[in-house]
Amino acid sequence: MDNKNINTSSALEQDVDEIMKKYDRESNQRIWTGKARIAIKLLMALFSLWCIYVTLFATFLEEIRLTSFMGLIIIMGFLIYPAKKGEIRENHMPLYDIIIMLSGSAAFFYFTFNANNIIQQGTRFEPYQIIIGVVGIIALIELTRRCVGIPILCVALFFIIYALTFGLTNPDMFGRVRYFIRNLFYTKEGVFSTPVNVCSKFIVVFIIFGAFLERTGISNFFIQLANSVAGKYAGGPAKVAVISSALCGMVSGSSVGNTVTTGSVTIPMMKETGYKSEFAGAVEAASSTGGQIMPPIMGAAAFLMADFIGVPYSSILGRAILPALLYFTGIFITVHLEAKRLGLSGIPSEKLPHIRLLVKRLYLLIPLVMLVIWVSGNFMTMQKAASLSILLAILVSLFDKEHRITPKKCLDALEAGGKSTITVAAACGVAGIIAGSITMTGLANELINGIISIANDRLIIALFLTMLCCIVLGMGVPTTANYCIMAATCAPILIRMGVPVMAAHFFVFYFGIVADITPPVALAAYAGSAIAKSNPMKTAFTASRLAIAVFIVPYVFCFDPSLLLIDTTPLKVVQIVITSLIGIFGISSGLEGYLKCQMPVLIRIILIVGGLFLIIPSLITDVIGIGLILAGYLYQMRAASQLEKSNS
Question: Where in the chain are the domains?
Fold first, then answer.
């Protein structure tokens, strides 16, 4: 029996690795062994320590910090990621990779060591400097292809081609190229704009913190905590998946990565309980994607949003709580109704972890809690708070022999932090290229004017068109780069339409993230389906249905920013939360087609329409919406009662 369990566990781990390599570009890495492995491990760890030192203590020019950061990213990126999938030769790096790595990093380091002279040059750039810029950009694009994927490059190449053919007005082709490369590579309007600046200053330290936090065993603690809280109720494993994936996804910052890691535990549990394969994979994908909007970490995008909008991080954190609550409530309602419809039970009490044992491990939350307190209370800078939280994570791990962070584990965490930074930094660099191309050509204004013209001052149409833009542009793009693209292209549309800046940025962020579960490029849903062994497209559509709240809540806070605690009163917040919850309940139950018993089509339509009425924040629509949902609910109660009598 033991050998069977070991074989099953090994097979599951192999499946997880294969799924990660298929759907998560970060998992396709070179194989280094022996002394080469040790050397690269030390390089990654030293990079992490260097990033912490620079962000805390460095006083040199910002251009030096940014260019040296990206130069090191190029070196590490090409050492880790091969040109194509399936590279299995150990300790092998082709000559062309070495050439690209050295020439690409040299281009960034050229800027590092000549920063003062380049800044003073103004617009006078020699042809060789333009060539250096081209080499640096090509190396960055190639690294992004390897570790992030094709979708973001398709977006970037579209804007680059547009800029060089139509967008820039200089009639001389070399003149256009010189102006374009100068702006992208030698100013803060391209590669070294806000995304890379925030990545090198804030995000990298939080990524390292997340690596240390994971080694304390907090992911396992979150799963056990979710089991203890919700496991015993109807369809318990699915509810466990919702809670644990929200908590783990918040820290991991990757929809696909979290779907695979926590899903390898939760999806088999859901299937064993009685959920269909498509539903099990969809629950995990929708919940893991929702982890990106879960405060306090929000997949690191919260730091970018704070910088873009110009508000404290604590302001973003506070305003994200209610929308995240509504999102997961919507999934939870659907999961519960599906369990009732199928007549599923919970996990037997003898298999659940005892709450008293979990209470003893609450100390694992201390680093996360202190991080929030330090940052939200403005006691210190974000990077200092994250650095101190790393020390706290090491300290609390000492109380657990199994997860104690030894010097070796500390080195592993620093290495993991350095590796994870590569993908985020590369994506942020390309996002800067996209934003720079849009700014240079004025394309953003044309897009804004086009959508406003089509909308004809009707906000609902502008929101719908912007939603479509966000979903299309966000397909297959990591969280941080995703938000950068949305902030540059789509947020200004809503701001021009009169939506508050904060609400506009939250709107585009939410719909950029939901691309991970929206067909046709629903990477998180496809990863979930691979574990569940279900139909990928059915899983993606089911995940979209489960995450219906994310298609509703952004509209709510654009029509009435009270949900984001903007210009409101406590009474108004309570009112909008209640109506939103009722609306989500109506839509979720209508889409599920079950409430105490199977629903007729007409009742499903009534509940969905009632929920949609509650999107528009006015007394009349609220009354109509609540009336429709109440009528549908009462009809179902009566139908269930009659069914029970007839069966008895």
Answer: 569-648
